């Protein structure tokens, strides 16, 4: 089998804008015009870095048992040489999350879901049905993450799925969670994207959505922020579900303590702090698998359209 990396090197050698993935498909896109060499270089650099961050999040969720088979999905908006409005990066359907690498992502149109960047592989319908609706409702966010983690999903099937103020992690989300109770209406694969629009409305101005009878969705102004919220909400849900299982009375934080804790956490959890969280995981994965992120591949990103 021909390696993708060798094919990419041949692509560069012949100065082509076509890219071939293991002989399966050829994709060709028209590059944007009017960009200086410096602008193109910056777009490629930022696109690659966002790919690295998103790939790290995918592997992290698999490592912590927060993925589900080859389903669930994380996306991030990224600049592109092929689309002025940028693209949403998404893993191609069928890839196990422990195998995700930065170069594997497809980049889809934020309105139509047309593949703009990619290796001839298609995204999952339910993924863009949910995510594009959320991006439309929340243009302020860069990243949307949706999984079916065990404890958050357990809360989602309860008559009262609200996070209780019984732990420090729970207090972080005191005023930043929306609940979609009784709204689940089947798999989100409608062509008109009604489910994505509905979930975007249910999320409102919050950053966490407990999806009734379904799972968890978080958004963030950066990839590390969306990841950090997802990870810690699941930890808060885990504590709550395990506490329920004891059958003993819960010890609730006083309202003023919960409020003060939330404010303190939000003052501490800056973009820089959550970036360190994701970078630490990135370092772990690089030690476990040195081929996870190959810096040489960053120069190939301008040819992935």
Folded structure, characterized:
- By secondary structure, the protein is α+β, with helices and mostly antiparallel strands.
- It has one domain: Class II aldolase/adducin N-terminal domain (L-fuculose-1-phosphate Aldolase, 3-Layer(aba) Sandwich), CATH 3.40.225.
- It is 42% helix and 13% strand.
- The strands form 2 sheets. The protein has an 8-stranded mixed beta sheet with strand order 6-5-4-3-7-10-9-8, with helices on both faces. The chain has a two-stranded antiparallel sheet with strand order 1-2.
- A hairpin with a 6-residue loop joins strand 5 and strand 6 (115-117).
- Helix 2 runs parallel beside helix 7 (223-246).
- The longest helix is centred in the N-terminal third of the chain and has 27 residues, at 37-63.
- CATH class placement: Alpha Beta
Number of DSSP-assigned strands? 10
Give the C-alpha Rg: 20 Å
**Strand neighbour order, sheet with most strands:** 6-5-4-3-7-10-9-8
Average pLDDT for all residues: 87
List low-confidence stretches: 1-27
Count of helical stretches: 9
Q: N-to-C SSE series?
A: HEEHEEEEHEHHEHEEHHH
The CATH topology turns out to be L-fuculose-1-phosphate Aldolase
What is the assembly state of the chains in this entry?
single chain
Basic shape: globular
The name of the CATH superfamily reads Class II aldolase/adducin N-terminal domain
How many domains, in number, for the residues? 1
Structural class: alpha+beta
State the CATH architecture.
3-Layer(aba) Sandwich
């Amino acid at each position: 089998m021909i390696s993708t990396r060798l094919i990419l090197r041949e692509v560069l050698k012949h100065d082509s804008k076509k890219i071939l993935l293991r002989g399966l498909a050829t994709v060709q896109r028209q590059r944007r015009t009017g960009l200086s060499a410096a602008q193109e270089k910056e777009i490629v650099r930022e696109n690659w870095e966002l790919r690295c961050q998103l790939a790290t999040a995918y592997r992290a969720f698999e490592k912590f048992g927060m993925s589900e088979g080859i389903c669930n999905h994380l996306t991030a908006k990224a600049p592109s040489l092929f689309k002025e409005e940028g693209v949403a990066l998404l893993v191609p359907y069928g890839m196990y999350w422990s195998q995700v690498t930065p170069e594997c992502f497809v980049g889809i149109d934020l309105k139509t879901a047309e593949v703009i960047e990619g290796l001839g592989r298609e995204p999952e319908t339910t993924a863009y049905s949910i995510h594009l609706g959320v991006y439309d409702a929340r243009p302020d966010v860069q990243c949307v993450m949706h999984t079916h983690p065990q404890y958050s999903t357990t809360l989602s099937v309860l008559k009262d799925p609200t996070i209780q103020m019984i732990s420090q992690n729970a207090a972080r989300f005191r005023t930043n969670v929306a609940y979609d109770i009784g709204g689940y209406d089947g798999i989100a694969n409608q062509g008109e994207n009604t489910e994505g629009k509905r979930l975007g409305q249910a999320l409102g101005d919050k950053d966490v959505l407990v999806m009734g009878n379904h799972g968890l969705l978080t958004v963030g102004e950066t990839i590390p922020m969306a990841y950090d919220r997802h990870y810690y909400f699941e930890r808060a849900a885990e504590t709550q579900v395990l506490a329920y299982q004891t059958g003993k009375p819960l010890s609730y934080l006083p309202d003023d303590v919960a409020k003060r804790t939330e404010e303190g956490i939000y003052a501490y959890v800056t973009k820089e702090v959550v970036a360190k969280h994701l970078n630490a995981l990135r370092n772990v994965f690089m030690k476990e698998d040195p081929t996870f992120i190959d810096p040489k591949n960053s120069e190939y990103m301008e040819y992935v359209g």
